[in-house]
Structures
1.
Amino acid sequence: MYDLIVKKRDGGRLSEAEIGWLIREYVKGEIPDYQMAAFLMAVYFRGLDGEETTCLTLEMADSGERVDLSSLPGVVVDKHSTGGVGDTTTLVLAPWVAASGLPVAKMSGRGLGHTGGTVDKLESIPGFRTQLDQEEFLRTVREVGVAVTGQSPNLAPADGKLYALRDVTGTVDSIPLIASSIMSKKLAGGAQAIVLDVKVGAGAFMKDLTSARALAETMVEIGRSVGRSTVAVLTSMDQPLGNAVGNALEVLEAVATLRGEGPADLAELCLELGAHMLVLGGRAEDVLEGRKILQELQRGGQALDTFKRWVAVQGGDPSFVDEGLPLAPERVEVPAPHDGVVSGLNALAVGRAAAALGAGRARKGDPVDHGVGVLLRRKVGDVVEEGEPLAELYCRGGRGLEEARRLLEEAYTIAEEAPSKPGLILEVIR
């Protein structure tokens, strides 16, 4: 291990055999954390080339169990988001795409920090089971066309160990390490084709377009090199997606979107990502046809019907679709300080506000309150008058209220003139 640390520190290139040995020995506990931390720092500064990154990805994917989805009909297309605020796309996309006949078998995680997790959102639904064994997982997909389950600890365990170490050694934001982390889980999860939603902006991990594009290109290249059709869509996360930030609030917003009544930006992103999924899955010739198919499924009610059946099969009570979900009882408005136009809405600050109320967690294993969160009443480009509500806070027992209110007040920028509205879809990399 000493030799590999020095080799990478000095800019050398690691062979397939060296990377394979490194991952296997680390998972077995033969390589101590202090040596792996030194190696990760060498990678942070020296990088990995395309072949090294692909090799690392495959070794991480093979470090535990792989899910076999070959028994499912058609091409199984997975969607992955690099994380953001108000990102409810999986809850909308999974049943919507499944309604087209394309199977959706997805493993998702929990939220951490200011970013929400799909598993936490689904657990807002009374009775919904987010831990399925492989047999239940596949049976659910066959029965209703869609299943979402929490990620198994046996899936790419090397990634879990490496990420925990990166998190405490200042080596998280390395593009080859991020790319191999994401793609190793996608490959281990059995994805046959992959659509990546790479977020860019204040509320995203990648703050600028250049670094986001580099990450997207790296992941698309990994997919290509291992025979997986992969598309990356770069999307803006300067302001939150949709209007709801918080678990139950986001589930209700997903239902509204499936009805055709959701926020325009959330609906547009789901149409774009879903259309790419249909193209990769062979259900549509191009993105335009994919969008038309999805719009027809929404208008005809098939998308919402699939959502209800999916909830029921995974143990949830679909009556909430009409009756609502329990939300925190206290509601506090954040008023506009003066007349003007919303010219900025910092997604990171909004995410932190929701987390302060109890919607997120600071550490893995922390409990979350599904009923709290933030409902945005105004977004970029909206005209406001002094005293009008910019946002509404759903809180319980006053927990985190003052901090959340302060963060929301700081998140909004109100100017005299309307700004140019930010584009949502920034770039597509195939």
2.
Amino acid sequence: MAASNNGRWLYSVAGIGNFCAGDNHVVHGFQVDSEVGTLSPIDGTPFFSPGQSPAHVAVTGDDGILLVGHGGDGSIHSFTISPEDGYLTLSGYSIDVGNQGDIGGAIATGDDFLFVTRRYSSTGSPSGMLVFRMNPDGSFFQIGGTIDTHGTASDAIKAWAPPPTSRGDINNDGVVDDLDVVAFVNVLVDTPLDPAHVIRSDLTLDSVADGKDVPVFVDYYLNPILVGACCRPDATCGIVTESDCLLSTPGSIWLGAGTECSECPTPPPVIIEAIPNSNPICRFDGAVIFFSISGFNFSPLANAKLTLSGSPDQIPFLLDVQSSDFMLAGFDITNTPTGLWELVVTNPDNQFGVAPTQYLIDVCP
């Protein structure tokens, strides 16, 4: 089982036992009553997973993605989680860890990372740990190769994120400078200025701050590796180095050393797809057209419009922002000029997104 980080939903997988009732593709979803902890089924549960015998579940740190690992075929499939009701939608993305039984005793997530162990080497690939970055659409980006866990039959796994700090930044003020030299020396002579300085002075990660950490500190002092807020266009954020930020999601912005995610600007709305309820779009007396608009970063007070160069904007008579990633818009096109129109969604801060497709409004025969 896996609970969402917001405490609202619980997900479980049925494997091949009695719980799956003869269907080895089942994922269950439950709403959690915050007052007494009782469970009620999420509308649509049980959900179907295309892998064989789901056995492992994990939720990403932002509660946006559910990962389901399968014991029968060694695959991991991703589902997007509705922020409104916990409903699961199969993303269409998956990875193959190996064959039957190759996924270790668990999978784990940390922020937007997925960690999974490959238990055996029988599939032609070495056993060990694999790391993936999870994108908001449920797709996977593998980071590096298989990591040797220095043991046999890699199995259970746990992941957590230590408090972010720049390497060598002993006093955690966002820079590595002479103040850190003073703090570091005080730790070495057993008179730390702050108990947290002791942990940050253990640069060799051998659980003790001593002379072995001195050359490492000098290297960081001369060549600091600084971390700060990495603001991604999908509204997620991580405290990482500048190089890691630039190598992450295209369009990410690193705010500088010592910055916090709270300093990220509000991202613009993004339209992934806008589907009209009629195609072609025909103009006639009393004609209306409705768009189902999916994307992300839609404000509850977002507006929508149809635009065509040289013509007045068309304002919807119906606008229903159902969530940050879905909205409906209806337009009366009785007197709309013919041509290729663009659909635009604008948030209250005047940032906007344009649909990737233009829509032909014409006088149909």
